[in-house]
Every structure is written in C-alpha cells, then in structure tokens.
C-alpha cells in the first residue's frame, strides 16, 4: 500500500494502516541505535502506526529509553546526524524530536519520545500499544474516538490529543490492575 508519511503542523488526518510502516521503523531503529549506541530494546515502535489495522496519522512514533534525561544535549547531536531535531514541546520527563521530509521543517514524518528507560511513561506507552494489539474491541473503540474528531475537523493537534486523553488514561490505568 505504502501510504506517504508526513503531516503538516497542526494538521490531523487519518489513513489506513500500512504494513510498510514497520519496515520503515526497523530501518530508522537501526540508524538510531548506530548513532546513540543504545541497545535495540530501548528503541520501540509505539503509537497507532505500531497497531495493525487501525487508522493512524501517517507519522511513525518512536519511544527512546535513556538512563538520564540530563544527557539530552549529547543525544541532540547524535540524533541531528540522522535528521531528528528536538522540538520545543514541554512535557514532564520527556523530550520530543521530529524528522521532517521538507527543508522548511513543516512536514513531520517521525517523532521520537525520549523518556527515562523503564519509567512509568515508558511502561505506559508500551502497555498501551501491546494492550490494543491484543484487545481488538479496544482497538476499534480507539479508532472510533479518533475518527469522531477527524469527521469534525482536520486541524487542531492539541484538541485531537485532548479528545483521546480519557481513553488513553483509562488504558494506562489497566496496567496496574493486570
């Protein structure tokens, strides 16, 4: 199928799942491990592109687990060599990087979410991916929530994220009860 990767700033669009995304993830994972010297287990494919047969924004989300976030400047240099740039996104215990497909830095194709390895956020994001992959009814529910937003508007990434938040937090809470 090969849906084209990339989404403009503040744009929200969903496309059909593409198995090629997993191949692209594996290629970029190899590059990330090569420039950072991190073990492969610390670079994970997350987000909807890691969940087969669910509509997704055409952006590959990558979870990067590091020992110390205070080494972010060193990682900045490593990741720049393969086209990732740190964004000004402010999140607790997380740095976000993006890879762009254009020279104007407007169309993002990949995100890296750098978090402390084995932290709660690491475990929650892995759990969310794995839970949806093993619970088809929740996968369908999540897709319905995402589509309900996109049917109303095609812009507003913060609003889109807020629209999904209750569902995501509910899945995160299941990690402690299983």
Automatic annotation (TrEMBL):
This is Dephospho-CoA kinase. InterPro entries: GrpB/CoaE, NT_sf. Signal peptide: none annotated. PANTHER family: GRPB DOMAIN PROTEIN (AFU_ORTHOLOGUE AFUA_1G01530) (PTHR34822), GRPB FAMILY PROTEIN (PTHR34822:SF1). One of its GO terms (molecular function) is dephospho-CoA kinase activity. Keywords: Kinase, Transferase. It comes from Paenibacillus nuruki. The keyword Kinase applies. The keyword Transferase applies. It is an enzyme of class 2 (transferase). The gene is coaE. Its EC number is 2.7.1.24.
């Amino acid at each position: 199928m090969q849906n084209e990767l990339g989404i403009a700033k503040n744009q929200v669009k969903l496309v059909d799942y593409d198995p090629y995304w997993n191949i692209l993830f594996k290629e970029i994972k190899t590059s990330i491990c090569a420039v950072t010297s991190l073990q492969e287990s610390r670079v994970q494919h997350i987000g909807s592109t890691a969940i087969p047969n669910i509509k997704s924004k055409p952006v590959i989300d990558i979870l990067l687990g590091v020992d110390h976030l205070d080494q972010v400047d060193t990682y900045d240099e490593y990741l720049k060599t393969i086209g990732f740039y740190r964004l000004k996104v402010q999140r607790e215990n997380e740095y976000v990087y993006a890879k762009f497909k254009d020279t104007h830095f407007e169309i993002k194709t990949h995100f890296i979410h750098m978090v402390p390895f084995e932290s709660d956020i690491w475990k929650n994001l892995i759990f969310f991916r794995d839970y949806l992959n093993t619970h088809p009814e929740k996968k369908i529910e999540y897709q319905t929530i995402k589509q309900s937003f996109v049917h109303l508007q095609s812009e507003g990434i913060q609003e889109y994220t807020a629209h999904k938040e209750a569902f995501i937090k509910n899945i995160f809470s299941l990690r402690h009860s299983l």
